[in-house]
TrEMBL record:
GO molecular function, one term: mannose-1-phosphate guanylyltransferase (GTP) activity
MannoseP isomerase/GMP-like beta-helix domain ranges (all copies): 259-307
Gene3D superfamilies: Spore Coat Polysaccharide Biosynthesis Protein SpsA, Chain A
Boundaries of every Nucleotidyl transferase domain copy: 3-246
Pfam families linked: ManC_GMP_beta-helix, NTP_transferase
Name assigned to this protein: Uncharacterized protein
InterPro entries: ManC/GMP-like_b-helix, Mannose-6P_isomerase_type2, NTP_transferase_dom, Nucleotide-diphossugar_trans
GO biological process annotation, one example: GDP-mannose biosynthetic process
Length: 316
């Protein structure tokens, strides 16, 4: 929130799940109540961003503002460059309103968990260039080849577009989802929560890329390396942002002991002593009622694994 506060609270909206609305209000009391967009169900980024767009379209009417859809779990080390970039992109979209802009970064490592795009971006953060090729979550071998070859960039998960362009994109490329999210929006607006939930249950669980954006033609990449961006939604990135010992081990509390161990992350609440002996390259996350242990190079799969496990009543 602090990163975008310079644009004014009247221009900031937060999209979250219904059950977190109270938490958002408590953490952001300065945010107007109607600036919290409450999704009834978790359906991945595709229906989520379609619903967000439908709500904004009803609020703005005939206006056509630039919308920057920004994940909340990102780390941006250079907030000043981030704001400058959004202003540059907004100015570009006023000239080219049919385009959508994807902020991109040079991949620091092989990580199949991202969408990768090829674009002829110059060695400058201000560069904008058409996206030539698009690969969503490649396998590890292909990802390694793309990262090594250069010219491929990782998508940050952010999208910047004109509101009416986003509406038209969903209407044309995902009409069934668009119609459903509009019904959900309208049902919630008149207090018909049961009907809205019933409609929301019909929404597919699908990413925004698979739903619409990979099919949209006028995509432009923006080189965002100067932001010092990282996806904090990935445990490997969380580890890199934390303080390490001399053998690259990191822990969220001081009750962890590393013995002949290297390059591990232990994450959990204080109160439980953890001893790691002779292990390397592990992510260990203690959530109290369950424990996650995986190799760092497999941590990009945790999201999909968590979805599978949640079907059996557990959530990572």
């Amino acid at each position: 929130f602090a990163r975008v506060a310079t644009f004014g609270v009247e221009n900031i909206f937060v999209t979250t799940n219904m059950r977190y609305v109270g938490l958002v209000r408590a953490q952001l009391p300065q945010l107007p109540a109607d600036h919290i967009i409450a999704e009834p169900l978790k359906r991945n980024t595709g229906p989520g961003m379609a619903f967000e767009t439908a709500v904004l379209a009803s609020l703005f009417g005939e206006e056509n503002p630039v919308i920057a859809s920004i994940p909340s779990d990102d780390f941006v080390g250079n907030a000043e460059q981030f704001v400058i970039a959004l202003e540059q992109i907004a100015a570009y979209l006023e000239r080219e309103p049919e385009h959508i802009v994807l902020p991109l970064v040079t991949p620091a490592a092989v990580d199949p968990g991202y969408t990768y795009v090829r674009a002829a971006l110059a060695e400058t953060d201000a560069a904008l260039a058409p996206i030539i090729e698009w690969v969503e979550k490649p396998d590890t071998e292909l990802c390694g080849q793309m990262v090594a070859s250069g010219g491929w960039f990782a998508h940050t998960g952010m999208y910047v577009w004109k509101l009416k362009t986003a509406v038209a994109m969903f209407q044309q490329l995902a009409p069934q989802v668009w119609n459903l999210v509009c019904r959900v929006r309208d049902g919630l607006a008149v207090g018909n929560t049961d009907a809205a939930m019933q409609q929301a249950n019909e929404l597919p669980i699908i990413s925004i890329e698979s739903l619409a954006t990979k099919l949209y033609g006028a995509k432009v990449g923006y080189r965002a390396d100067a932001w010092n961006w990282s996806d904090v939604g990935k445990w490997a990135v969380v580890k890199e942002l934390m303080q390490h010992d001399e053998k690259s081990n990191a822990s969220s509390h001081n009750e962890t002991h590393f013995i002949n161990a290297r390059n591990n992350l232990v994450y959990g609440k204080p109160g439980k002593r953890v001893v790691c002996v002779g292990v390397a390259d592990l992510i260990i996350v203690d959530r109290g009622d369950h424990l996650l242990v995986c190799r760092i190079d497999e941590s990009h799969n945790i999201g999909s694994i968590a979805e599978q496990i949640s079907k059996f009543g557990a959530v990572l």
